[in-house]
Write the structure tokens for this entry.
Amino acid sequence: MAFEVEQVPLFLAPMSGVTGLAYRLLARECGADFTITEFTAAAALTRQDARSWLKLESDERENPFIPQIFGGNVDEMVKSCELLQEKSDIIDLNFGCPAPVVTRHCAGAALMGKPDELVSMVERCVEASQIPVTVKMRLGTGNGLTNALELAKRCEDVGAERICVHGRTLRQRYSGEADWQAIAEIVQSVDIPVIANGDVVDAKSASDCLAITGAAGLMIGRAAIGRPTIFHQIKSDLGWNNSEPKWADMEFSDEMHETLSARLWAWKRYIELDRELNSGDSSKNRLRHAFSFTKGLPGGKAFRTQLHTNREAKHVSESVEEFLSNLVSNV
Ligand SMILES: Cc1cc2nc3c(=O)[nH]c(=O)nc-3n(C[C@H](O)[C@H](O)[C@H](O)COP(=O)(O)O)c2cc1C
């Protein structure tokens, strides 16, 4: 494939229920340059909720470590930054989440509808933190003017060190297409790095998104669910990386064989990491990954129906491995 775009860092998007520590480390091994925890409520962190703190576990292999927090209360956000900074390299503030459970407390993307409050929250978090603070936002709420550009400039003015923009509004949630042109305007209007996010699914979309936005990095979400090797694939297709992938210890008969072998390698490695860490990456996450790793594959639907009958973690791990191994040997 011939794409001519300069290399930029690739980010695994923060995804609740998906990007636990084991999956983040796996994504790193598969070529992701940056990983960010799933969002965690500042309200829960400040009342020392153990389950929320579990979500913010890291490991020396995850460097830099970037926890993401959200909340509608400035004091709780500031306190969370203070509590987190010692164990973190960067703190990311979420102004992009469209989930009603978040937006009804005027947190996540809903704060984009209260620009002064959002900017003041960023300013206070920056002041309270000895480490860089970054921001992830959408294009706006979708009600009234799209204000990401104005907000990006104001966040830069109060000290945010990087901004990631998902090219959709809150109202759009995940519908329609990400507006890369709108991200381009933000890239041109601020001096801090802007990371483009939304609908990057392969080398072609990565290259198109970079050509349009001129962004300093790309963030990949849904396309990396069940396919952590996408990071290596994109880098290799764009000529950014000539190293042999970790799963290439055999000759591949065709592209399908390579895809399946990569999927099998990644699953086995995910289970290894999950067992080793024995961390907050719950069996719920493991089941979710079992579903996504088998999505779109021949016989996958029947396999997943079967999986529902026994959700025990060991059974899930072994069944997925067997399912993928059979596919690899039968191509
Ligand atoms: C299952 C799921 C969970 C998500 N959780 C978060 C989250 O915790 N924090 C966040 O900032 N964005 C979250 N997002 C949004 C993604 O980070 C990303 O912005 C969005 O999926 C668009 O990128 P994509 O088109 O590459 O998927 C989530 C998205 C999905 C699909």
Remarks:
- The longest strand covers residues 91-95.
- The chain is about 45% helix and 10% strand.
- The beta strands are 10-12, 34-35, 39-41, 68-70, 91-95, 133-137, 162-166, 194-197, 217-220.
